[in-house]
Amino acid sequence: MAGRSLTSKAEATAGAMDRAEKAGGQDTSSQKIEDLMEMVQKLQKVGSLEPRVEVLINRINEVQQAKKKANKDLGEAWTICEALQKELDSLHGEKVHLKEILSKKQETLRILRLHCQEKESEAHRKHTMLQECKERISALNLQIEEEKNKQRQLRLAFEEQLEDLMGQHKDLWDFHRPERLAREICALDSSKEQLLKEEKLVKATLEDMKHQLCSLCGAEGPSTLDEGLFLRSQEAAATVQLFQEEHRKAEELLAAAAQRHQQLQQKCQQQQQKRQRLKEELEKHGMQVPAQAQSTQEEEAGPGDVASPKPLKGERPGAALQAGPDVLIGQEDTLHPDLSPRGFQEIKELF
């Protein structure tokens, strides 16, 4: 609408300018009329153009009427031109106002675009942060699951170990009761005493044989050359060596039995300490010790009672202790036959 009004106003302005040009042409024609009037007046003075005066007057009148009409059109044109000039001024003002509005709108648009870009960048940053948070949450969830699995495995392993320890404790309690250990210790003590008695008996026998040899040598004198040669022979040396070997074996067996007895006592003390430590760990983890285990520990804490050692895999607990005295007694029977009473008798007869 504004464009159409501007074009129509421009066309009106162009028409007004054309009218102004026509008015200028009319001014020139009025000048010519005045020139003609002067010429007519000169001719009238001369008197040579009388028949044409009327024609000229008519033409002058027509020209004057045309002049009046042209003046009227010129006034209208000036009025229209002034109106158009006013309208042009108003259009210029409106144009300036529209330019100001356009600049304001452009500035607002620029601000809105910047704000939109900031919002988009903020949204992109928030989206990136959201993705990072999701990834971090998923990683933390995975770590939590792994930690739960690890804790579950540790708990299962601890339960299995606890069950194993409780089973071992039960087996140890079944096979290593204080009464049984006391019986085995008594058997070891008796076997030790028996070995000491046998050692004393062997020593006494050796002393007796030495006395007999000395008496035989002193009574018969140097005349018994054969007996002296026999005493200096290899058979007598072998017999003495056999006695010495049997004596050494008896001492070794006695020392082994004493060492075994000491090792058993040390193992019993270690097992008691280990069981006490396991009890403290169970109490630390908040688990109650079975009533049977507590009663056994109270009994073992009494005077003269010791804990039993852990049996070897595939071996019945206490088998070595139980078999110790019998084995030692069996080994006593497997001594050299010359140490038996019959062997002593044969040696005496030989001497």
Automatic annotation (TrEMBL):
Q: Which GO terms describe its biological process?
A: cell division; synaptonemal complex assembly
Its subcellular locations are:
Chromosome; Nucleus
Show the ranges annotated as biased composition (Polar residues): 1-10
Keyword Nucleus part of the UniProt annotation: yes
**Cytoplasm among the record's keywords?**
no
InterPro entries the UniProt entry points to: SYCE1
Where along the sequence do coiled-coil regions lie?
Answer: 53-101, 130-164
What family does the Swiss-Prot or TrEMBL record give for this protein? Belongs to the SYCE family.
User: Its quaternary structure?
Assistant: Homodimer. Found in a complex with SYCP1 and SYCE2. Interacts with SYCP1, SYCE2 and SYCE3. Interacts with SIX6OS1.
This one is known as Synaptonemal complex central element protein 1
Q: Which organism is it from?
A: Pan troglodytes
Q: Which gene encodes it?
A: SYCE1
